[in-house]
Hints:
The protein has 150 residues and is mainly alpha-helical. It has helices spanning 3-18, 26-30, 32-41, 57-60, 70-83, 88-92, 96-114, 134-149. The protein contains eight helices and no strands. The protein is globular, with a radius of gyration of 14 Å.
Amino acid sequence: MSAEIQSICRDAWYNCVVHGFSRGTVLARKYSTELRIIAKISPPLIADTRTTLLESDMELNTVLRRGMNAPNTIEHKKRLIELLPEHAKDIGSLSYPKVIFLETAFLLESLRASCGNCSEVLSYFVDPLLKAGDTAGCMMTIANEVCRAL
């Protein structure tokens, strides 16, 4: 799959979450069959070329800032806290792009795991922001949840 197609796929998943498709929402449950089919063939949200770079995709992707305002930030943080209650303190301090990224990773990788593949979640840990800090702790919990779902 070309880098351009991978980027379009990632942006599509981010847009889904920005517009209300998150793990456990009514929209995600209503379209779960379709989302699973798409998730099964989607690339991870982290490009494999990130291993040699110092900056994160989360810092560079403008789609992650779509809909960024105070009410949306509060709403998405609440959703992520519902998914990862043990990280409520960490999530409270995260930026909007990081929250959208983590919400999207949880949705995509949960759907992929429901199709029998939880191995893609490991690729997220090549991103510099997912190796340490608040986002790393959240991502580790997401990875554990995804693997448990299998």
